[in-house]
Amino acid sequence: MAIRGLSRSWPHLLPNSVLVAKVLPCVTPTTVGHSINATNLIHVEQLELAARLGVTDQERADPQRITISVTLWNKADFHQLADNIERTINYVDVCREIKTMAESRQWKLIETLASELASHLLANFRLNAVELEVRKFVLPNTKYVSAIVHRETALE
Predict the structure, then answer these.
(1) Is residue 95 assigned to a domain?
(2) Helices 91-103 + 110-124 axis angle, to 10
(3) Do the Cβ atoms of 60 and 120 come closer than 8 Å?
(4) What is the pTM of this model?
(5) What is the DSSP-derived secondary structure letter of residue 5?
(6) Domain count of the chain?
(7) I need a labelling partner for 122 at 20 to 30 A (CA). Which of 5, 15, 96, 136 fits?
(8) What is the pLDDT of residue 108?
(9) Residue 68 maps to which CATH number?
């Protein structure tokens, strides 16, 4: 197995393995699509929660540790905020909403939880867009399994 840019001696280190790379999207005004404030964002990394999440009844029987990371694109450019919390997204309120919703019921799929959280945040906060990652720590020999969703508001 030869991989461009790597030493020819490297492939023998991982025989019969699959190389996987996660490529993160580049945030630009065209990817968010609303205005030049695409780089004005708020990010919360790995909010820890306990949720009843899993396909089987046994997996949902007890709350399990999950983390949720969320990136929020504000409708207002940061330079317009005038140091006023009322003009921005209160990330404490966002985290409270995420926690309340995630713990409010049982979820079978992390994909459903991610999708419904993203839609809820768009509907309840002044956002152009939201990206949300739900991580679950149950699969042996892995750090985590995650679902990532990106949602945008309709153009105004």
Answers:
(1) yes
(2) 140
(3) no
(4) 0.72
(5) T
(6) 1
(7) 136
(8) 94
(9) 3.30.1130.10
